[in-house]
Specification:
Largest sheet: none
Helix content: over 70%
Shape: elongated
CATH class: Mainly Alpha
Number of domains: 1
């Protein structure tokens, strides 16, 4: 399986691209303050999944996914600020909030799956000994 086939990665990439398109429409002050933080947080979700994927040891992969989960929560916080400051309309806010929640569930499921194969192999080796 390739990273690009991982559904949680695809969802994270989509959120980052949608956030980028929204922030591009803002005035300079909004882009320079909330916009930069929002884009960095949103882009960091997929970037950390990608970095974890490239790590050799499964515990490192899981750790980067924890970072990704934190970035997902940070993205939601910046979206809430943008919405309360009327930089993002209710429709876009709700759509992104819904997709962040879906991505969060998928990311938690992915985190749970990391290392399971390794642990199953250890259990098999222990029972054979």
């Amino acid at each position: 399986m390739k990273l690009e086939d991982l559904q949680v990665y695809q969802l994270a990439m989509d959120i980052g691209e949608r956030v980028w398109e929204i922030v591009l429409e803002w005035n300079y002050f909004a882009r320079d303050t909330i916009g930069k933080q929002l884009v960095k947080a949103a882009d960091s979700v997929a970037a950390n999944i990608s970095e974890g994927w490239g790590r050799y040891y499964y515990k490192e992969n899981r750790q980067f996914c924890y970072y990704s989960r934190g970035s997902l929560k940070e993205t939601l916080t910046w979206l809430r600020k943008a919405h309360s400051r009327r930089l993002i309309d209710a429709r876009n806010f709700e759509s992104l909030r819904k997709d962040i929640n879906i991505t969060s569930v998928k990311l938690n499921n992915y985190i749970s799956s990391i290392g399971k194969k390794y642990k199953q192999q250890l259990t098999t080796l222990d029972s054979e000994a």
